[in-house]
Amino acid sequence: MGQLRQLVKSSLEAALPEQAMLTRGRRLRSNDGAERPAQCAISLTFDDGPHPEFTPQLLDNLATADIKGTFFIVGEKAERHPDIVKRIADEGHEIGNHTWTHSEPRETSSKTFRDEVARTNDLIFDLTGQQCRLTRPPKGELSPGKILALLKLRQTIVLWNRDTKDYRMESWSDMETWCHDFTPEHGDIVLMHDNHSFAATAAALAGTLPNMSGVKFCHISDWLRDSRRQSKKTTKISGGQS
């Protein structure tokens, strides 16, 4: 995502209700609302799966590194590989919605987009028993009609602020170079794709690189739960003052 697009997305996030859109994480707090000790926390996200070969490889490496991620799955692929979706959930990762077909955004109407999100959410519930509240639109592209559709479906739009551009990579060494050059900052939401092997490479490296030492890996919903706690606390305080 270029700097101009990131600015536009961040401005849109600021204009929408707090739970409606996320482009990067916020400061985490403890259950009593107090700020936790300073620690860098980031979220690794994986789009376009499940893939029958590469997603299991990625899950193996995430387990070895003791990292939990968020997978934005494509419904028609999930329908073909239900056991992988169940494994993602069973191993403690989070599942988000990446529409049913991942169709070209500019060729997809708001109604079709809404129907695809709803259909994918139904499948996620059928496979995992979990309600999905996170949607990442294909290519991160939105229109007013699609934003409204997601608001009506009570979905949080999840974008990103760090893009590996792994879809352009041609070898494992490309991902290794990116990982070694990546300096995480608190709140980073990192975009990767589990429909090729490079995400598995990144997961294998993430827990061992010096610049990842002490980094906490969060589910996307961790940022949102923290925001809800703060919102409730603020409402209670303001109510008491009035």
Uncertain parts: 227-242
Structural class: alpha/beta
> How far apart are the termini?
44 Å
* Radius of gyration, in angstroms, nearest whole number: 18 Å
Number of helices: 9
Please trace the helix and strand order, writing H or E for each element. Answer: HEEHEHHEHEHEEHEHEH
Mean pLDDT score, rounded? 87
Give me the count of strands.
9
The major beta sheet can be summarized as:
6 strands, parallel
Q: Strand share of the residues? A: 5-15%
Can you describe what's shown?
- The protein has 242 residues and is of the alpha/beta class.
- The chain has nine helices and nine strands.
- It has helices at residues 3-15, 54-65, 75-80, 82-90, 110-128, 144-152, 172-181, 198-206, 220-241; strands at 21-22, 41-47, 70-73, 94-97, 134-135, 156-158, 162-163, 189-193, 216-217.
- Strands 2, 3, 4, 7, 8 and 9 form a six-stranded parallel beta sheet that branches.
- Strand 7 (162-163), helix 7 (172-181) and strand 8 form a beta-alpha-beta unit.
- Helix 5 (110-128) runs parallel beside helix 6 and helix 7 runs parallel beside helix 8.
- The model is unreliable at 227-242 (pLDDT under 50).
